[in-house]
Fold these 2 entries.
Entry 1:
Amino acid sequence: MPLAFSPTTVPVVVDDAKCIAEKGCTVCVDVCPLDVLRISEETGKAYMKYDECWYCMPCEADCPTGAVTVNIPYLLR
Amino acid sequence: MDAIKDGLSQVDCDVLVIGGGTAGPMAALKVKQNNPKARVVLLEKANVKRSGAISMGMDGLNNAVVPGYATPEQYTKEITIANDGIVDQAPVLKYAERCFEIIQELDRFGIRFQKTGNGDYDVKKVHHLGTYVLPMPNGDTVKKALYRQLRREQVLISNRYMATRLLTAPDGRIAGAIAVNTRSAEFLVLRAKAVILCLGAAGRLGLPQSGYLWGTYENATNSGDGYAMAFHAGAALANLECYQINPLIKDYNGPACAYVAGPFGAYTANAEGNRFIESDYWSGQMMQEFYNELQSGKGPVFLKLNHLHPDTVGEIETILHKVERPSRGRFHATRGTDYREKMIEMHISEIGFCSGHSASGVFVDEFARTTVQGLYAAGDMANVPHNYMLGAFTNGAVAGEHAASYIGEVDLPEIDAEFIAKERARVLAPTKREDGIPPNQLEYKTRRFVNDYLQPPKVTARMKIGQQRFAEIREDLDTAMVARDSHELMRALEIASILDCADMAAHASLFRTESRWGLYHNRVEYPEKDDENWFCHTLLRKKDGRMVSEKQPIAPYSVPIEDEERGAYDQLRVRKQA
Ligand SMILES: Cc1cc2nc3c(=O)[nH]c(=O)nc-3n(C[C@H](O)[C@H](O)[C@H](O)COP(=O)(O)OP(=O)(O)OC[C@H]3O[C@@H](n4cnc5c(N)ncnc54)[C@H](O)[C@@H]3O)c2cc1C
Ligand code: SF4
Ligand code: SF4
């Protein structure tokens, strides 16, 4: 049985204007305990690839430019 | 990143520490401090910089035994009573004797603890009997401070490797572990003389009420892999029926932190705003009263601060919204909850295994040794009851010190190539399928059944149906699970652990035919505590490929408990409500 594409709204958002991933930064991707952030091949910026978040916040706390915002996952809000 | 690559490498070391959260870094440091030449590898599924329960830091030590406030004997007595007597006191007493020295060491690392004007540690009373809670005003620095020490001692850190199975030598002793890279699916075989398991709680067992798989109390990285690995290696696991269930902020599922707010005058209240429990310390008996209140016409249950002075509330807020679970303020903000006006709705958590909070863990002695030679366990997954963060640090240190000398007595063990090949085939199977059931659906279904069938109050017929459902899911997992990249493969492997833990929870709960530990093991058909038949540990292990449970006597107490003291935690309900 083939897999479907089911959308979810992700809790973590990155401000592309502030993200400096193109300069080689991968801090948020490195620190996330659940390993759910990636650098997009399309935009060259960090984004939440997997909706599997413990809303713990190292990504936001450690980002050098303040580009990351952690929201509470919708199901908990 | 995430593409599946074929790869297999091998590393030989003296001590392999698995899990770089809280206990693990301390264990690794202690091996190096005691044996600087030892080759120590610290293997971590996430990144040691920000992994584990203390990822963002901690608000305080829940169980500090500080001279002047408490003695090791008093602490041992309190934990024995809080745990309904099912305690080998030697490891508890060892912890209580050693933990003050660890506090001082952490202090030297730069993690500061609250002091009074005279420079004494400022310990608060939260437990029913003694005084053990020590605030950490700069608790957000814990992980950084540990990391600095690991670098200084030149511990080899391997991040983003998930351990999947332990290796044992032909003579039965430990020989190392197998791990898989979570971003490339490459294999790493680690051959070691000693292995220290510090993989944390089984925190993804029950499904949170929100239905969000990751909205757990525990750091959701902790999927019970340590419990599963210990089981498959033949180690004994103790008292798994003594589940972890915590009183939490509803939906947010983080601690309401009565420990922090309590000393300021906050308390747990019912819908009428009245106290109903004598002590906010988390015990099974407290959880039973909490559950009763939730079910009663006086529910739900709340954390009450709105009677306090607004400045006091402000002070509590800065602590609670900064360190341990800093997203808490955002949660309240989206719902418009101001502590000054409204009480905070609470609920009980999903079930899990965790000795840090209750008593379900791998059986260890006072040297953190498991029943398998050369295999140690520390922290939330080792059954030293009510161990918390300082227990993880202290018992991690105990394990590291013992391992540091043990490796001088043994050679590098042989490893079994055939076993490794088989494990590789098991791990990679979901990546070989084109089509099938994805990990998230298998996980959701397993954890929903954990709620439906295993959550207390426990009923025999229900738990047996649960076992059937788990067997059916296992069949799907073995024949139809599909993983499309290495990240999904990690999730797929985690479900195997979750399912093992679900089976262990059912098996252990069915074995003990009495009720004990309040809500944690409330068995409807056996409502009484039965000391005559069940004043013992239960040990669960894998024997000839099957899961078996047996009784194990409690080691004679070195700190005696008088008959009239035994029931202290049985009377937690406030007698007359004001
Ligand atoms: C929200 C919360 C609040 C708490 N508050 C307090 C408090 O205020 N005071 C207090 O004293 N205690 C508190 N505790 C308890 C305390 O934090 C824990 O008891 C302690 O940190 C556990 O340490 P550990 O090393 O056993 O587990 P962890 O620190 O969780 O470490 C486990 C590590 O193992 C890694 N791991 C898991 N699986 C694998 C695998 N397969 N391969 C490799 N690595 C793996 C994880 O990534 C993690 O880094 C709290 C716990 C939580 C969750
Ligand atoms: S840490 Fe910040 S700047 Fe760096 S990649 Fe992530 S979002 Fe971009
Ligand atoms: S909040 Fe935590 S789990 Fe979520 S993306 Fe950030 S670091 Fe990862």
Entry 2:
Amino acid sequence: MSTSIKSSTNELTFASVPAADGLNKALALSRVDIIDAIHESKLKGRGGAGFPTGTKWNLAAAETRTPKYMICNADEGEPGTFKDRVILTEFPDLVFDGMTIGARAIGASLGLLYLRAEYGYLHEHLENVVARRRKTGLLGRDIAGIEGFNYDVLIAMGAGAYVCGEETALIESLEGFRGEPRNRPPFPVVSGFLGRPSVINNVETLAWVACIFSKGVEWFRSYGTGASAGHKLFSISGDCEHPGVYEFPFGITVAKLLKEVGGEDAKAVQVGGASGRCVPRSEFERRLAFEDVPTGGSIVVFGPDRDMRAIAHNILDFFVDESCGQCTPCRLGNPKLLQGVEMLQEGTCSLQYLNDLKGLARTMQVASKCGLGQTSSVAFMSILEHFENEVLGRKPLL
Amino acid sequence: MLITERDRLREDVLAIAELTDCHRASLIPILRKVKEKYRGIDTYAMQLIADVLGIHPVEVYSVATFYSFIQPQTQGRLAFRLCRTLSCELEGKESVAEQLQRDLGIGFGETTPDQVFSLEWANCMGMCDQGPAMLVNETVYTQLTPGKVHDIVEEYKSQQEGHVTKRQAERVL
Ligand SMILES: Cc1cc2nc3c(=O)[nH]c(=O)nc-3n(C[C@H](O)[C@H](O)[C@H](O)COP(=O)(O)O)c2cc1C
Ligand code: SF4
Ligand code: FES
């Protein structure tokens, strides 16, 4: 199968796994064995947080209340991330295979795929895939001849809000409310969509589930590092010669990745999107993995002439716009940081005030309700840490 | 709003609400449909939707204003959304923005007086490797340059009969 995913160091997995192969192999196993296999594979969530998928499924499977829901998070709003779009375009069957395997494992009867509004042009394509799968018995009643295994998938459209990628905000949105994150616990595996046990997995996580059953747990675990098993898709953009979606094993160094994409002269890279950290050239030997520099797969490359203050400004602007406004540290903190970056540009930010801003950023990281406010200042802080001289030495604009 | 248009709106709202037995979960699908078809969600529409779903109109308002694709205010039939986020900024979205404003004759956040075009900023739309990127309704355009957006706007204009730019309208008034 042809694909736009690239790599010169390893084989491309998704193009080599036939649709429904992983699903059929998984459905030959008992529900307990499916979850055990995912446990043993050490698969961790590809949506950013890296939570072990087997553990999540186990928690939901242990719940006795029904109906249960198996939900796919296709909100992909993190700046610099576009791998889920490529998966949904080129390998949608792997995603639905993964959802159906998950449904079997936890005992879910309905699935929802929450597609971001910006990907509206994929809606019809995905509806067609769902319709085809219903016709061929891969969705619907008694799937694969297993009596009583009923599972169907609906595609739910988002309406334009980054925060709805956060799993509890996603549920609020599915239920018809503002996408304001909930307190956790209770976690969605206990009380999710309509108050019922729900598993929410990223598009890529689900595609890997299908690959793990198709190619085997051992195969998957033989790649990557101890704490970060398997391959990962990386969305690479910015100042490099060959941007795009790449497949690499976890543990690849920043330097090696930059060589692959033609971005060797970079002065820094933003890893993990706007909510991730800025890694300077001096740290390019670090490894992309949950135990070193964690990432949902987004890498934005900054060439030697980029103004790091402008980058901090663009990132904070994004968070000011996308904060749901529900809690004070995030609602008020992000505009304060943005204003601080503007003062740095104008040369009117004293060191005293800059230290106050750092204190504010630390407060936001511990006191915000959801991941958005907890991570929105990470890029700002890492740019200050590594590029303080560049950011500070501005003449006042008099 | 004309009576016939109100009837049509009611039919549209009911058609979606009935799929879920008027469950609250159909609120966003309804708002998306109304916005797509009528380009805005006025107070009558909000009250109607609230009535059908058995919730307070303020709840409809609070949800509509939360999401950028279902904002209540009326937009043009063709909604231009240019990405302003990191990768597209690195690729030079600023000059594309200038050209768009000049060709459409409106600024960001504005709609042409004949309600054909509107222009707004958007956040990352998942086309970062092909920036600068923009959406026109549900069509995505990538690797934009000032020249390229000029051609795109001209193409849309030629499909619109009797489109009047803001500047032309001001000259007439
Ligand atoms: C502000 C915010 C935005 C998020 N956006 C996404 C997203 O667009 N896609 C996604 O899969 N996960 C996103 N997440 C992570 C989800 O909350 C959740 O952890 C993930 O979908 C779980 O799937 P996984 O375990 O398969 O990674 C976001 C989290 C936060 C805090
Ligand atoms: S941290 Fe920000 S996005 Fe998250 S709940 Fe608070 S205000 Fe909303
Ligand atoms: S930054 Fe513009 S599409 Fe992602």
